[in-house]
Amino acid sequence: MTFRDLGLMPSLLKSVSEKGFSQPSPIQQKAIPFILEGKDLLGGAQTGTGKTAAFALPVLQLLEKQNNREHYPRALVLTPTRELAEQVHRSFIDFGSQLHQRCAALYGGVNINPQIQQIGHGVDVLVACPGRLLDLVNRGHLDLSRIKFLILDEADRMLDMGFLHDIRKLISLLPSQRQNLLFSATYSDSIRKFACNILKQPILVEVSKKNEAAHQVAQSVCHVAADQKKNMLIKLIRSEHRAQALVFTRTKHGANKLAQHLDKQGIDADAFHSNKSQSARTNSLNRFKNNHIQVLVATDIAARGIDIEKLPWVINFDLPNVPEDYVHRIGRTGRAGETGRAVSLVTPDDIHLLRQVEKLLGNSIDRNNSAEPIPSDESQTTVPPSDPIPFHHRKHRSKKNTTDRFKRRRRTTRSTATQQSA
Length: 422
Ligand code: AMP
Prior knowledge:
Layout: H1 10-18, H2 26-36, E1 41-44, H3 51-66, E2 75-78, H4 82-95, E3 103-106, H5 113-120, E4 125-128, H6 130-138, E5 149-152, H7 155-160, H8 164-171, E6 179-184, H9 189-198, E7 203-206, E8 217-223, H10 229-239, E9 245-248, H11 252-264, E10 269-272, H12 278-289, E11 295-298, E12 313-316, H13 323-330, E13 340-346, H14 351-361, H15 391-394, H16 399-421
Helix pairs in contact: 2-3, 3-4, 6-8, 13-14
This protein binds adenosine monophosphate.
Residues 21, 23-25, 28, 47-53, 307, 309, 335-336 line the site of adenosine monophosphate.
């Protein structure tokens, strides 16, 4: 199937081809025709599946066809984080480069005045975080009464982050005649209830099974004693010859400390979390995207939304307290058909968190032999300069060999962990 088969107009086909997309992804194939027909949609898709284009392309087409350039916004995309708002905004700008739709990104943590000015000039598409949007509405700068399209992106995350009240308030300001699209990576009861209240006879489009982690991510677990976690992390990072890694910690303080520790060990790293100013966050993310730093140490705020092309791996330095966050974290790698790896460092105290994640996924990561093994000899506490076996060679090892070594490694690591924690 091609983008042309989906019924997209020539100017959008041109932008899509300029972006280098040769074929629509499954969520795009399924969702775009229904959205073009004007149907409400409940999309079960995590980031990395191409869901942004799945809604941005048809919404841009419908707006362009309406051909009534008004002063008031006609499409509203709500996102949980500023980074996601920026990314979605960027996509609307890129895809709409041949069209006449004006797009603005509205989020907190930055000066509100340029946003007020931009709205004043007239905007067709708003991509916004709920808090700043409400602020602008309450100050009288925005009129949402002409909105024809409401898109709730990463709706599960917005509920997790406590935006339900704000979203309800915003929806009460919208006209009842509108098309609604809701995307969520996970399906909890609260999301189901929320969707029922907003969507009218929605088409259900799913690209992965309920709560399933990205297929193309090879996941593995490294059992390690708490006091050996940092050494193990450094060993893993060094083993990949400067491959970039997104490392997750549970706390902001932990992220700061770990980034500093890595820096001291000669590994360029930045921390990324919500206590940092928006400009510091943008700066760190850009440094990471431009390969100026090897490691970004982040809390779960980064687990959603941010899109870093071809990120080879994610390391869970700490497992998350909420098992759903694991799915979002590992979704940062293995994006849009690329393969990726996710390694979780698990201390004896965190085994229960691992079991919660496995329960959610419906399988055991511990026994996942498709994962690339951790470099051998975990009992060693000094950190070697690099792994003797380059990654591209390791990929060609036979499966049986990998499996045996993986089992052997687990036995070694387990006994090491036990000794060290005793
Ligand atoms: P998303 O799930 O919307 O965050 O998209 C994830 C990544 O996939 C982004 O970098 C997109 O540019 C890319 N992408 C989206 N659709 C396609 C496609 N049809 N072909 C190739 N890459 C795509």
